[in-house]
Amino acid sequence: MMGRQAIAGVALFLAGTAMPIAAQEAGNPDQRAARTLAQMTPEEKIGLLHGPMPSLLPAAKRLAGVPVGAGVITGVPRLGIPNLTETDASLGVSNLNDLRKGDVATAMPSGMAQAASWNSELLRTGGAMIGSEARAKGFNVMLVGGVNLVRDPRAGRNFEYLGEDPLLAGTLVGAQIAGVQSNGIIGTIKHFAINDLETGRNVHSVVMDEAAMRESDLLAFQIGMEKGRPHSVMCAYNRVNGDFACQNPFLLNDVLRRDWRFPGFVMSDWGAVHSSEAILHGLDQQSGEQIDGKPWFSTLMVKAVEEGRIPQKAVDTAALRILRSMFASGIVDRPVTAGAAIDYDAHGLVAQRAAEEGIVLLRNEAGVLPLAATARRIVVIGGHADIGTLSGGGSSQVRPVGGFALEERQVGAGVASFSKRSYGGTAPLAALKAVRPDAQITFVDGRDPAAAADAARAADMAIVFGEKWSTEAADQKDLSLDGNGNALIAAVAKANPKTIVVLETGNPVAMPWQKDVAAIVAAWFPGQRGGEAIARVLTGAVNPSGRLPVTFPASVDQLPNPVLPGGDAAPADAATRATYGLMASAKPFDVHFPEGSDAGYRWFAKRNASPLYAFGYGLSYTSFRYDGLKVTGGQRPTIRFTVTNTGQRAGADVPQVYLTRPGKAKRLVGWSKPMLQPGETRAVSVTVDPRVIADFDVRQQRWIVPSETVAIEVARSATDPVLKGTARLTRTTLKP
Ligand code: BGC
């Protein structure tokens, strides 16, 4: 079902690092973990259940020889059990506090950008690359796998995640995790679950019925876990139906362990533990323990066991699960040591390919793009395009190779370490000059819209950057561009009809100037080699093939929650804890998501609302035709058709298949990403996973697909069907 675009250069480092781990001792991971546990003292067992955030420790108290990352858990050296050395995150090895002086890593484009590729091979390759850097820097746990669904385009962490659809996000995160873990290290999937907003993230309670959860956010996790087999799960900050996610028996014991048979361990998010009893409800490890304020899983756990409030068996079970993952991942047999050489050039190319495939061409009037050779005088405006590209803030932020060119502290963003607006990676201006040496390319910083308009008037063409920064720990007020972005674009567009807008955003944005500009390119936060990726798409060296993994609403009035939940409940900045934006003093509040399981395009379909740009949308420099639809019904319907490149350029397309049951919102059931030469035709086949279209029956605890006739669409986006057919479904019931 997935795209198969060859990615040159990648085999190089895969061959170097992703070797299968040979078991050096007899037995499977379960047996080896049990044998090890039997030899451990009570203190050693407790030792595995908790650990600090090293950056918050005085230097003298940090474990010698252990790299400073997000967390560390002390191992049992006498039994060959290593420390768990943990680093963030999904976009590369982050170094938020800069304690590994000057250390840099390859910065992948944002999760949203990667999701826009709709190419799981790309996510796997990126995962293998960032995991190899984690390993080379001495980390054996990488806190990747962010797959919270986009329910609100103002949510601060959407840029880290993989869009609004459970099948797309789940498939992609599974590939990313598998890539990371191919290095013989532990990956996570996070933040379990329904941690879809940042406002009051550690106090709010999401109120949602089980069916809605199972059919949306939990389905994304389920698919991701099946495909990626992460060795650990990170539970979230928020509450779900009243219980904190890290002590939520429904999420951790019923769903994760009983239904999904997860054999690994659950680690808490940093500061998400609220009791020692959490261990009875499925939590195995307290991470970043200083942030919790209480040593729930160390001294207080010892006390609870002594007092008989927690059975020793619960401690044993948690320790066993952690050990099992250590054996299963390979970190015991092939211990990680810091210092391996990193080929940053090859890795930069991986980041560049990801950025190129994730760029979405949203508008291209009269074929203004790719840039014509006749456009000789080009002015580039704004976005600090002369020094780099924008990245998202928070724990996922990677200090890119070359360092940041600019870090601007944001006033009022709440969390000191997260509130830097940072630019790095390669600069679009230099990259454009490199691919268009024949052109006269100038730069105007865009602070003064009138000056920018003057420069645009004097040029053949204007390329203006629009930005919207996002960060962990804060949601966004609205969908407007930062600063004078909208005014700047409007002024430039008025001065020159050949105005091309390049968006660097973490989220969908509103575009009041949409009809006045010739072209719009969504470049997201494009990472390490964002400059080249943008330049190569603009000039046509790369034919854009990204498709939106998220709906761009026309305005917030179309959203299920026009007013952001909790916006008025958040405390003033002074009351916000300095670390990680945890609002200790905020009053708990409930979050309702009126869309239930119908997040994103499904909500728009149900309400008959026209978005600004639909989920799945994206243009190409060539054109594609779909033909020959053949649908077979039954329990696992199959949809077959062909795609032909009818244009003059080679390019990749993303034909999407949607299924609509009577009275229900449409659902994405599959897609493909064929790369086609002009005139080339490719056959595509999509088989439907019944869970993606089923209702979850809570009483029977079963997925149920009734016998009925459903509509099938082969489409260019969620709102642009091309081929239409029907399928007769056969009743199916499945265990969760
Ligand atoms: C984030 C996690 C991250 C952890 C460790 C938390 O604030 O929610 O995604 O892995 O910190 O840095």
From TrEMBL:
Instruction: Read off the Pfam families from this record.
Output: Fn3-like, Glyco_hydro_3, Glyco_hydro_3_C
Query: What's the source species for this entry?
Result: Sphingomonas parapaucimobilis NBRC 15100
* SUPFAM superfamilies (UniProt xref): (Trans)glycosidases, Beta-D-glucan exohydrolase, C-terminal domain
Q: Name one GO biological process term.
A: carbohydrate metabolic process
- Could you tell me which SMART domains the record lists for this protein? Fn3_like
**Keywords attached to this entry:** Carbohydrate metabolism, Glycosidase, Hydrolase, Signal
Family of this protein:
Belongs to the glycosyl hydrolase 3 family.
Q: What is this protein called?
A: Putative beta-glucosidase
- Signal peptide segment: 1-23
InterPro entries in the record, alphabetically?
Answer: Cellulose_deg_GH3, Fn3-like, GH, Glyco_hydro_3_AS, Glyco_hydro_3_C, Glyco_hydro_3_C_sf, Glyco_hydro_3_N, Glyco_hydro_3_N_sf
Q: Which residues form the Fibronectin type III-like domain?
A: 653-718
Taxonomic superkingdom: Bacteria
What Gene Ontology molecular function terms does this protein carry?
hydrolase activity, hydrolyzing O-glycosyl compounds
